[in-house]
Amino acid sequence: MKVLIVECQRELGLLWQRHLMRHGVEVDLVHSQEAAIQALYRQSYDLLVLDLVLDEGSALAVADFASYRRPDARVLFVTNTSFFSDGSIFAHSSNACAYVQSGTPPEDLAAMVEHYAAPR
User: Fold this and answer.
1) Which end of the chain is more exposed for a tag (fewer CB within 10 A), N or C?
2) Domain residue ranges in the chain
3) At a CB cut-off of 8 Å and minimum separation 6, what does 22 contact?
4) Angle, vertex CA 35, rays to CA 73 and CA 13, nearest 5
5) CA 110, 111, 113 angle in degrees (round to 5)?
6) pLDDT score for 27
């Protein structure tokens, strides 16, 4: 199982990365749209854990690029805002599989990653 985390808050991204790695998941961590695009050029991923509000770039651009470059990869969006809390993210991103708050406990995030990254 291979996961790309795109999270601009470095400490939070590292927390998630370490937790997923303890569960046997291969994890790459990047902090911007540009770095995520480069990672998607180089590597295939089962799932992206993607912060909806990036400091550098657009999460929707990353999700859109992933749907083109890695069509089998799903996107689990995380956010600390109420933006898209009505569920409309699923209308904007065809590869979206979940939408959770950034404060979701790491063990719950790991369970979702294992579920959504599993072969379909």
Assistant:
1) C
2) 2-117
3) none
4) 75
5) 60
6) 97
Q: Would you call 53 helix, strand, or coil by DSSP?
A: coil
Cα separation of 110 and 89, whole Å? 21
Residues of the chain with pLDDT under 50: none
pTM: 0.91
Q: Largest Cα–Cα distance of the chain, in whole Å?
A: 34
Give pLDDT, residue 86: 59
User: Of the candidates 41, 39, 46, which has an alpha carbon nearest to the alpha carbon of residue 113?
Assistant: 46
Among candidate residues 93, 119, 96, the one with its CA nearest the CA of residue 2: 119
Q: Any residues with CB less than 8 A from the CB of 107 and at least 6 apart, and which?
A: 19
Tell me which residue of 66, 27, 31, 28 sits closest to 51, measured CA to CA.
31
- 70, containing H or E segment: none
In 3D, which of 40, 98, 32, 27 has the Cα closest to residue 66? 40
Fold of the domain built from segment(s) 2-117: Rossmann fold (3.40.50)
With CA atoms as reference, report the closest residue to 74 among 54, 96, 57, 53.
Answer: 96
